[in-house]
Design brief:
single chain, 120 residues, mainly beta, 5-stranded antiparallel β-sheet, 4-stranded antiparallel β-sheet, globular
């Protein structure tokens, strides 16, 4: 089973989740929630890019736009034209990320919002 970045999802032992398990809520939930979650402070997102770096030892990051404006996410140099849209109260799960994984957020001109994260 592949994540949104084309990488294989793995179970807690590092084994690839097979196609027979693909699509089951339990296999995805068990893969992500086995680690202790860490709630992160809110990140203010203005109309200039800000970054979020996952804590060492964590492999999964769930982010939610808790503000009232659209937030865009992507790599360094993200813009509202190039980024992926995260609508208010929308969330996105980054799975099996590398140590030092960094994601960037930005809002459109003269707008701001807030993103919250939970790391696993």
């Amino acid at each position: 089973m592949l994540d949104n970045h084309g990488r294989w999802l793995t179970d807690s032992s590092g084994n690839k989740i097979s196609p027979s398990e693909e699509g089951t809520v339990e296999s995805i939930r068990d893969n992500v929630i086995l680690a202790s979650p860490t709630h992160k402070d809110a990140l203010a997102v203005p109309d200039t890019e800000v970054s979020y770096t996952i804590t060492a030892g964590k492999k999964h990051l769930l982010v939610q736009n808790t503000g009232s404006k659209i937030v865009y996410w992507g790599g360094t140099g993200v813009t509202d034209a190039k980024g992926y849209k995260l609508t208010p109260m929308g969330s996105y799960l980054f799975t099996n990320v590398a140590s030092g994984f960094k994601v960037y957020f930005i809002c459109s001109a003269a707008e701001s919002s807030t993103v919250r994260g939970i790391e696993f």
